[in-house]
Design brief:
There is one protein chain. The chain is of the alpha/beta class. The protein has a single domain, classed as Alpha-Beta Complex (Spore Coat Polysaccharide Biosynthesis Protein SpsA, Chain A), CATH 3.90.550.10. The chain contains 10 helices and 9 strands. Strands 5-4-1-6-8-7-9 form a 7-stranded mixed β-sheet, sandwiched between helices. Strands 2-3 form a two-stranded antiparallel sheet. Helix 2 links the parallel strand 4 and strand 5. Helix 3 packs across helix 5. The mean pLDDT is 97.
Length: 258
């Protein structure tokens, strides 16, 4: 499930912004499709009229599209999973257009090979921000859907699960490098500066190799500190900052105020 909507409060319409002649959402889909274990890919958007453009784009491109709740993303993912007869649901936000397909495959392969209810690379995160992968069994997301009560748990889909290791068998994969770039390297999109960074990465790398990966991006930003600096002021900024009083497993060092 690639969750996407047009009504971002910080950068409206970001999923339709142009990257080398294609909407950012399609660039995102292109990268997810490169994952060997991607399975059935579904764009999970909202029933808001502003997201008609996403449904139209999916129809034009032959992509699966599900429309559900704007604010209850747990409900959106759950019902999309039912509609597509999922054994497991993989949550990947549409603000990760630089996600490395090999990272997706690593998380999914670990889920396939082991007996866990939930596997991610986010709890805690170590990869550069924007390589977000969470996979959960349909039974697990059903339990969350039935029991989650907090607005935060509904809005962000998975906190009910990863906040309750006593109820679920949970595994987390850290970056093989042994490094933690989750708070220093920002490859996600919420602000105009993020788009400027992502657009520049595509312009520099995509024409040479459409399958550019995590290492290629790191090499580029090492060579070009001017590119790294485009959105560096937002490094470490994430949704946790607004819910530190509600989250049991997240500490203040895992987020930063704007």
């Amino acid at each position: 499930m690639i969750q996407a909507r047009s009504g971002s409060t910080r950068l409206p319409g970001k999923v339709m912004m142009d990257i080398l002649g294609r909407p950012l959402l399609l660039r995102m889909v292109e990268r997810v499709q490169r994952a060997a274990l991607a399975g059935t890919i579904v764009i999970a958007t909202t029933t808001e009229s502003s997201d008609d453009v996403i449904e139209k784009l999916c129809a034009q491109e032959g992509l699966n599209c599900y429309r559900g709740s704007r604010d209850d993303l747990l409900d959106r993912h759950y019902h999309a999973g039912l509609l597509y007869h999922a054994d497991a649901v993989v949550k990947i936000p549409s603000d990760c257009p630089l996600i490395d397909p090999k990272v997706i495959d690593r998380v999914l392969q670990y889920y396939v090979d082991h007996d866990y209810d939930f596997v991610s690379n986010l709890h805690p995160a170590t990869y550069p921000d924007g390589n977000d992968v969470e996979v959960m069994s349909m039974k697990t997301i059903t339990t969350a859907w039935q029991n989650a009560r907090l607005k935060m748990e509904r809005e962000h889909t998975t906190p009910y699960i990863w906040e309750r290791p006593e109820l679920f068998r949970i595994a987390n994969l850290t970056w093989e490098s042994g490094l933690d770039y989750s708070m220093s390297h920002r490859w996600t999109i919420d602000y105009q500066e993020d788009f400027d960074f992502i657009k520049k990465v595509y312009e520099e790398l995509y024409p040479l190799n459409p399958a550019f990966d995590l290492k290629d991006i790191l090499d580029l930003t090492d060579r070009r500190p001017d590119i790294f600096a485009l959105n560096s002021k937002y490094a470490g900024v994430n949704w946790y900052r607004n819910h530190l009083d509600e989250l049991k497993t997240i500490t203040s060092d895992k987020t930063k105020q704007v």
